[in-house]
Write a structure and sequence with these properties.
By secondary structure, this protein is of the alpha+beta class. The protein contains five helices and 18 strands.
């Protein structure tokens, strides 16, 4: 089974804008890692966000890949076998690519919706402790990974089966909501946990998005730090995808800010942790929020 979400790779139109957004709004630290990418760290891991310059025609930023901790080589090899048996293409990462990710080995693949994913082992440590440039005390990460990713999967059931049957994720919640517009299908978001207590490390939305990312979540240590983050967003004049609120399924208190290039970041606190997944029954929700979270579609 997957241990957790280790890193994400974003293809950005404006890397400098991500530098400012990541450090001065989110409170991440710029990591001192050689290479062409911008690396942002949020704990003692070498980095959590790898921001690369996008190639090709201008457009929105894109979530190029989610990087998942496979634990050890035996588990990684078993996952490769399952991916290939399911018909997925698996490519071994080159040595220079592994070095750029601060891992000893990784493979690249994709889910049935075309979302890029990477599985890795042997993450190296730069030896630098996390220090936020704006005084954020820290983020809720290990042993649960960097947070969660919500990605588009119009073929939702096929993708849900892939993540459960092939990669071994467990279902946490199946959220069904009324259609967002007349004539549109019902909205469905399926939430999955990895091998850690975080309520979900992954979720799949049954609708497309040009960024290949519905949102990425990071969790801070206190409610006051959520409020301070919202103040920074307001003062910078950045758009919100969702106002402050508390979710129904994972109980997270959060807001969503639209980052450079249209990728949304959920900035939250007090997410649900489950100590015993064996005794947990997946839920079926019909409401996304207990209160708040007024949503708006981000401008691209």
């Amino acid at each position: 089974m997957i241990a957790g979400l280790g890193y994400v790779v974003i293809a950005a139109q404006d890397v400098a804008a991500w530098d400012k957004f990541g450090t001065q709004i989110l409170g991440l630290q710029k990591a001192d890692i050689s290479g062409d990418a911008l690396y942002l760290k949020m704990d003692d891991a070498p980095f959590r966000y790898m921001i690369e310059q996008a190639a090709g025609e201008p457009g929105p930023d894109v979530l190029a890949a989610t990087g998942w901790d496979a634990g050890d080589d035996d588990n990684l090899n078993a996952l490769i076998e399952k991916l290939e048996a399911a018909g997925a293409t698996v490519t071994e990462g080159a040595a220079d690519e592994a070095a750029a990710r601060c891992v000893t080995r990784f493979v690249k693949s994709a889910d049935p919706a075309g979302n890029g994913l990477e599985l890795y082992v042997g993450r190296t440590d730069t030896g630098d402790a996390f220090v936020s440039p704006i005084g954020v005390s820290g983020f809720v990460t290990e042993p649960m990974g960097m947070g969660h990713a919500v990605i588009p999967a119009p073929n939702d059931q096929e993708c849900a089966d892939f993540y459960q049957d092939v990669l071994g994720f467990g279902m946490s919640d199946d959220l069904r909501l009324p259609p967002p517009a007349e004539g549109a299908p019902d909205m469905r978001i399926v939430f999955f946990h990895a091998d850690n207590p975080r309520h979900h490390s992954l979720a799949l939305g049954n609708f497309p998005t040009p960024t290949k990312c519905i949102h990425l979540m990071m969790e801070v240590n206190t409610l006051d730090e959520v409020g301070a983050g919202l103040d920074r967003v307001t003062q910078a004049g950045l758009p919100l995808m969702a106002s402050l609120g508390r979710h129904e399924n994972d109980k997270m208190v959060s807001f969503y800010v639209v980052g450079p290039g249209g990728i949304a970041i959920e900035y939250g606190y007090d997410g649900l942790q489950v100590d015993d997944w064996a005794g947990f029954a997946p839920t079926v929700s019909t409401s996304g929020d207990i209160w708040g979270h007024e949503y708006a579609t981000p401008e691209m």
